[in-house]
Amino acid sequence: MSNEVSFLEQVNQMFEKAARYTDHPRGLLTQIKMCNGVYAMEFPLQRDDGTIETIRAWRAEHSHHKLPTKGGIRYASNVNEDEVKALATLMTYKCAIVDVPFGGAKGGVKVSTREYSTSELQRITRRYTYELTRKNFIGPGIDVPAPDYGTGAREMSWILDTYNSLTHEPLNALACVTGKPVGQGGIRGRKEATGRGVFFGIREACSYEDDMAKLGLKTGLKGKRIIVQGLGNVGYHAAKFLEEGGCVIVGVGEYEGAIYKADGMKLEDIVAHRAGSGSILNFPGATNIETSKEVLTKDCDILVPAALEGQITEQNAPDIKARIIGEGANGPITAGADQILLDRGVLIIPDIYLNAGGVTVSYFEWLRNLSHVRFGRMNRRFETTTQENLLGAIESLTGKHMETDKRRAIIHGATEEDLVNSGLEETMVEAYTETRRIAREKDVDLRTAAFINAIDKVASAYVSMGIWP
């Protein structure tokens, strides 16, 4: 990272800033902050050409105040132990803020996915899962991984298959990992969940008239100009839902560079251009920008950094023009930059709240796997029939009949995806309302308020366990 202090140290600095607003004893605060366990491993990989390479990987379990622990696995060439511990720490706080009953965890494998074949990635993933299983770092009630940067449903299916072949308790094996393909116990809506959660959080933040007035903005999303850094799973879906909500995309950054067009661009046009040319650069009518970081300082109303940590630093923070920053990625703003932006009156919607959509829907998937029942299966037909009978009675009384399409929309019973999205929306709205209330009561920024919220909830869990008086 560009800042002198490490990612984990920055997370702990933010923790300490919030801890000053609580009355918990120092011993309890230290217990909450510390990482309970880290498994560092090295194992051999036979490449497709027959050569042998050593792979480095980690799994950190930050807090066991609730079990299982939960957190994604990222594949990236810059992964290190400090980063994994920092991300596991953030997961603990994130789960607490959105009332998901997990402790925080995170995994990392030090590989660049573009440099390995599918068969090599499969061998890496299966060996990693074997190591986790051997050391009791994975299981439905122990530690439940999920996708992160560089991984997806494919890798989660390999993890499930490997774990299933090793476990002596196959009944609930599906719940050992989330983010799986739907056909292998995954849940509809999981892929879009983090980006959709970013949308719900930003939409909720923009709904408060007094908060927007301080920024010189009107309420709502309509017409607000956005820049999104990163078109991975989170960035793409955040941009998609924000655009559908009325925002105008004026800038996009990716690893090959960035583009900016003041009067706006359509997301699907950008995606199609990239699919055809292999790059977002040279998009018709847009200005090319050499690096992804440079687009962050362009003019916009809402900035969504959804790539990696440490993108906004003390060096570029003074040049940020956005009035609202929604942290789609983990730790995209360094501690020093955070204070610079706050002093300038920028509204920062923090990562430990805003990108909690993924773990929220992962929680729903985990529940679905343990219950062995698809959401909506027990009640969808009953709801449809009840609403159809009610509408029929109204039509009979009024003598009027509704158009077929409208009728079908009204009597529609909730599908699994409807229920998942509704639960996610409720979670994000309630969590923002609670965080904003704490911010106003304590006269602090949203990030500090979110940390206060998390500290209080984790502390309460430890006290209820009888560990602290």
Second CATH tier, the architecture of the largest domain = 3-Layer(aba) Sandwich
Question: What percent of residues adopt helix (DSSP H or I)?
Answer: 40-55%
Quickly count the domains.
2
Q: Pairing-aware structural class of the strands and helices?
A: alpha/beta
Question: Can you give a write-up of this model?
Answer:
This protein has 469 residues and is of the alpha/beta class. It folds into two domains: 1-34 and 187-379 and 414-469, NAD(P)-binding Rossmann-like Domain (Rossmann fold); 37-186, Rossmann fold. It is 45% helix and 16% strand. It is built from 16 helices and twelve strands. The strands form two sheets. Strands 9-8-7-6-10-11-12 form a seven-stranded mixed beta sheet, sandwiched between helices. A five-stranded mixed beta sheet has the order 1-2-4-3-5.
What does this entry show, briefly?
By secondary structure, this protein is α/β, with parallel strands linked by helices. The protein is 45% helix and 16% strand.
Topology:
Layout: H1 7-19, H2 26-33, E1 37-46, E2 52-61, E3 69-75, H3 81-97, E4 103-109, H4 118-134, E5 143-147, H5 153-166, H6 193-205, H7 209-215, E6 225-229, H8 233-244, E7 248-254, E8 257-265, H9 267-277, E9 287-289, E10 302-305, E11 324-326, H10 335-343, E12 347-349, H11 351-354, H12 357-371, H13 380-398, H14 404-411, H15 416-442, H16 446-464
Helix pairs in contact: 1-3, 1-16, 3-16, 4-5, 6-8, 6-12, 6-15, 12-15, 15-16
